[in-house]
Write a structure and sequence with these properties.
It is built from one helix and two strands, in the order E-H-E. Helix 1 links the parallel strand 1 and strand 2. With about 60 residues, it is an alpha+beta fold.
Length: about 60
């Protein structure tokens, strides 16, 4: 039984120029989900900023 809970946060890689859900987002989801499964960590949700690079601080979900 999982005793820890995590939220999975994925964001667009600056090197991934695809439209739609990018390959980097899917890879991050897969790797992080597997990590949580292997370490018995429950996943509360997935949060993805696809189309928003970490170099862009105008994130629609994190505005003041």
């Amino acid at each position: 039984m999982a005793t820890e809970i995590a939220a999975i946060y994925c964001r667009l890689s600056q090197d991934d120029g695809q439209t739609g859900e990018s390959g980097s987002i899917q890879t991050q989801k897969t790797l992080l989900t597997q990590y949580c499964t292997d370490h018995h960590i429950a996943i509360d949700g997935y949060y993805c900023d696809d189309g928003w690079s970490g170099t862009n601080f105008s994130n629609r979900d994190c505005s003041d």
